[in-house]
Amino acid sequence: MALPKHASRLERIWHYTYLVICALIFLFLMAPILVVIPLSFNAEPYFTFTEKMLRLDPEGYSTRWYDLLLTFGMQAPDAARDGSWWADAWSNAAWIQATKNSIIIGFFSTLLATVLGTIAALGLSRPEMPGRRVIMAILISPMIVPIIIVATGLFFFYSAISIQDWGIPYLGVILAHATLGIPFVIITVTATLVGFDHSLTRAAASMGASPTLTFLRVQMPLILPGVISGALFAFVTSFDEVVVVLFVGGLDEQTIPRQMWNGIREQISPAILSVATILVLISIALLTTVELLRRRSEKLRGLSPG
Amino acid sequence: MTDATFSPDEDVAKAPAKGLTTADGRPLKQALARAQSHARWRAFFLVAPLLAFILLTFVVPIGQMLHRSVYNDGFTLHEDIGSGTQTPLMTNLKTWFKDNPAGTDPDEAAFAALAADLLVLREVKAAGQAGTRINYELSGSRSMFTKAARRAKKLEPPYKEAILDLDEDWGDPMLWRVMRDATSAYTANFYLAAMDRTKDVDGNVVSVNENRQVYVKLFTRTLMLSLLITFLCFLLAYPIAHLLATLPLAKSNLLMILVLLPFWTSLLVRTTSWMVLLQSQGVVNDALVSMGLLGDENRLQMMYNQLGTIIAMTHILLPFMVLPLYSVMRPINPSYVRAARSLGATSWTAFRRIYFPQTVPGIGAGALLVFILAVGYYITPALVGGADGQLISNLIAFHMQKSLNWSLAAALAALLLGGILLLYWLYDRLVGIDNLKLG
Amino acid sequence: MKIKTALLASALTSVGFAAQAAEVTVMSWGGAYTKSQVEAYHKPFTAETGIKINSVDADNPATPIKAQVEAGNVSIDVADVEFSDAVRLCDEGLLEEIDSSILPAAPDGTPAADDFIEGALQDCAVANIVWSTVMAYNTENNATAPDSIDDFFNIADYPGKRGLRKSAKATLEMALMADGVPAGDVYDVLDTDEGVDRAFAKLDSIKSDIVWWEAGAQPPQLLADGEVVMSTAYNGRIFNAAVGEGQPLEIVWDGQILDFDLFVVPKGAPNKDAALQFISFSTDTQRLADQASWISYGPARKSSGALVGTYSDGKTEMAPHMPTAEANLGNALVNNFEFWVDKDAELNERFNAWLAN
Asked: Keywords on this record (chain C) (predicted)?
């Protein structure tokens, strides 16, 4: 992208204009994320920077909204913060309940999606897989079909089979979220298997390795980065999903996004922004993990100098 | 696992002496075919559990929804919630409709049948349900059923007179046309309604009254806004994808984080942030006012309207455009452009004739993906769209959750689904699903 | 052996029953209103009976009831709904009937049936409060204070955004009243096509300045944030924001629309008995009066009136803030539930088409 020495004046002007345009677009991409973090420390219940905040006066900042996240929904939020206060928060605070639910649902749906998705990706990446294109299209479609349609369909389906009477909590939401997460697992795992040399497995077999051993020692190390990033994608999908939860989730199955959805519509107090900030930090952590995994995978497969 | 027609003994016996054979004496061709069939089955069995899972949790529910869009038994069957007892409704009327062709004026026998059916409605408390079904196609008729059912016991012959006495609208030929249709649970009328059409007295398809037309408008709006958002995404994604693709890998990886971080951030978080930024007492307006660019009383309304939907959705979908563009631009060899320049092309011509055409596949892939995702958006328009920034998904949600006209919701969803699948097929043909990449 | 099994079985069923009865799910409207119910009903109920209340919120609890019952997946035991919705849901067989004889008599012995104000007891519903839809404004964002419903529709003299509930009910009536229809004639006019057109024409005049709200907690928020200068709202929410939180909000009582909120039990509610127990506990004289000290809604029992005292801050007299206070009834409309039972679907359909255009 460096400007050649012989560039004309017009080209120079254009080059710098172009860089400014790019900077503005990057600003557009990052602005919402950047603005949420400082505002979540606002001492006032407003969504804009107060004068004190702009002057960087410590009085303009506070962690009261983070505190509210803990106390909201508690039986006795004003009691002394001893053991029983924390016990109260643990069992009653609305956001803590939502976090628990989100993690339970996210964990099981990710597990389901990752196991089924990885096995299927192994099959799909075999050259002899029949009807590959059609099956792939079906398996990826949950990512493409609008979520409202999925939620509508599941609402009818779950009422028809009375899934809530089966006595397994969160089952409906877990199955739905697993379905939504599967395309990500398939995509990431098949990507790691692109260019996989199948003679490796044959070589292992010819040396007497059982299929299981071949899988564990030859294929697994190669696909593991893909499996983990697929799982992370699936987890994020579940962790961020609200429409299906709204449509088929029980009243007690409040998740973080559902709690946010209610909060945004009722009163977007800066408490919502503190949740948002925490979620941004989580996504930074996840993104870093996935990037590291991707590089490791490319290195393993010799695709990049990494 | 084994091929059903395959029997080793037979095959060995039949094996001709000539030609290549394996160590155990089978013809090589056959053994190979068998091995390949094994391999195919093995591959398929790996995929089968997931395929079954997707069929059950995804394909079947959507199929059921499609069924719902052509099937509504509100006027023909009542199920008691507590006991689960099912009672057929409007049976007498159904018989009368069967005996008399469409267009017959309802006579005393018809009204007698109606009176008998109303009595059943009253007994099982299904007047509201039956009335609601008719009300979908003829506004204002719901209350006629509930009122008439409440007085059903007092009705005496001649029934025609007695019922018309309750409400003269019972003589409306339109009502009878609708009731005739509704006595069959299968109907295409919800699709008509989803396209702002209805049937007139004679069963001809006509447009609904202008002040009730809404769906075609919303489909059109969804389409137009999605196109606009796709175009905006393209405009914003192209320069930065180009920058990322031409920078050295180390730098571009760093900048790529700025694209990927929003991509990984919760949809609700991003939507909330846009509300904070754009509302009239929000950050952007405050900044403009304090810089003196805007009077305090002229704050821009950028939220709770179409503009809010467009800005927030463009932001959310932008990474889906950047990533495919980047993956197409990265391998483009810069020497082509240099060659064009050295042959005398201006930088604009070199870009237009040499560089741009090579990026078209990326544009196609990104645009299709963004468009497909935009058409089905629900959350963001619901939160920031106000009244005129709502998309078709919001209307589906409205009919699912508020008006509870589930058949209409299903019909709208089916139309939307049809469009999406068409685009999906196109995407598969042009781009190939295998080429879908994440990050 | 047989006896043992039988014993075990009965022990199990009784455990199961106890576990079931130990919780009632109550669905209400969220925000300050739910809080008032939690303080006045839920907490004392749990303290007395040991039955835990699981409190959940909806924009309008009538819609999830219908969806749940029709989908055969009922998890709500008690819901708090508007008058026309209570009647309509009952008509459609979606609610359990409630025998008013289970309700406690007034302290002076007057039976419940006579103690509740007229219309408060229905086949399937027991009213708890009288509330109203009012117009409210932010005193800091209006140069001159609006004092009538006409001002809501007068953008020229009162510039700024307006907040309105995203539903036909109350919105159309207010439009007609602002258009000069006397409160007494509103429903007669709205019953005709011309009347409906007239209401929408009036709404057209401010359409581009409307911010729509759905949850009751939104209007005080929109007003306080300055997103709108005036809004329709549930009167109690404005009272709590103004008196409880010190926001600069004021109510204009002119053109208020009074309505009941009633407790109902959805058909097939999982804990029906406990639900009825909760309703009869909550709607006794004292409890209804207690609720009025948390939010400015009028109790549905005559005998509660005398017990209504001050707000939970200990100094604000509640009586003048009630929608039913004499001074506030100058130009008030009582919601005609029969009209909305019949017309709700039709007018909302028209309303949505109007919104989308």
From this structure: Signal
Pair (B131, B269) in one structural domain: no
Cβ-in-10-Å burial (0-12, 13-18, 19+) of B75 comes to buried
B138 shares its domain with B230: no
Q: Which of B70, B89, B115 is the last residue of a domain?
A: B70
Helix ranges restricted to H, chain C: 2-21, 31-37, 43-49, 62-71, 83-91, 112-115, 149-152, 171-178, 186-190, 193-204, 218-225, 235-239, 272-282, 285-291, 302-305, 337-356
Q: Which residue of C has its CA nearest to B126?
A: C92
Rounded Cα distance between C235 and C16, Å, is 43
Give the mutation candidate from C55, C65, C76, C221 for the A interface (greatest A CB count, under 10 A).
C221
What residues contact residue B154 under an 8 Å CB cut-off, 6+ apart? none
Same domain, C207 and C352: yes
Q: Write out the H or E segment, with its range, that includes residue C264.
A: strand C249-264
Q: Do C345 and B403 touch (CB under 8 A)?
A: yes
Question: Is B341 part of any domain?
Answer: yes
Please indicate if any CB of chain C lies within 8 Å of the CB of A32.
no
Indicate whether C343 and C240 sit together in one domain: yes
Residue B201 lies in a domain: no
- C200 CB neighbours in chain B (<8 A) are 211
Return the pLDDT at C4: 46
Q: Which residue has the higher pLDDT, B220 or A48?
A: B220
- Domain with C38, as residue range(s), is 2-130+261-320
Domains of chain A: 99-266 (1.10.3720.10)
Expressed as residue numbers, the domain containing B34 is: 8-70
Phi, psi of C249 (to 5 degrees): -110, 145
Helix (H) or strand (E) holding C125, with range, is strand C125-138
Asked if B325 is an interface residue toward chain A (Cβ–Cβ < 8 A), one would say no
Mean pLDDT of C110-122: 90
State the smallest CA–CA distance between residue A12 and chain B in angstroms.
Answer: 12
Taking an 8 Å cut-off on Cβ atoms, the answer to whether A150 and B424 are in contact is: no
Q: What is the DSSP string of B196-225?
A: TEEE-TTS-EEEPPGGG--HHHHHHHHHHH
Judged by CB atoms closer than 8 Å, whether chains meet at B269 and A144 is answered as no
Question: Does A141 touch chain C if contact means CB atoms closer than 8 Å?
Answer: no
- Nearest residue in B to C141, CA atom: B297
CA torsion B158-B161-B162-B165 (nearest 10°) is: -170
CB contact under 8 A, C221 and A158: no
**C222 in A contact zone (CB under 8 Å):** no
* Predicted ipTM of the assembly: 0.89
**Residues 120 through 149 of chain B touching chain C, CB cutoff 8 Å:** 124-129, 132, 135, 139-140, 142-143, 146
Task: Provide the residue-wise pLDDT of chain B in tens; the chain has 439 residues.
Answer: 334 444 444 444 454 556 778 777 788 888 888 888 888 888 889 999 999 999 999 999 999 999 999 999 989 998 877 677 889 999 999 999 999 988 888 999 999 999 999 999 988 888 888 988 998 888 778 888 988 988 888 888 889 999 998 888 999 999 999 999 999 999 999 999 999 999 888 888 999 888 888 899 999 999 999 999 999 999 999 999 999 999 998 898 889 999 999 988 999 999 999 998 998 888 899 889 988 888 887 888 888 889 999 999 999 999 999 999 998 998 888 888 889 888 888 888 988 998 999 999 899 989 999 999 999 999 999 999 888 889 999 999 999 988 888 999 999 999 999 999 999 999 888 888 777 766 5
Assess if residue B313 is contained within a domain: yes
User: Which of B410, B2, B367, B392 is closest to B214 using CA atoms?
Assistant: B392
Cβ atoms of residues C53 and C24 within 8 Å: yes
Of B46, B70, B94, the residue at which a domain comes to its end is B70
Residue B278 within any structural domain of the chain: yes
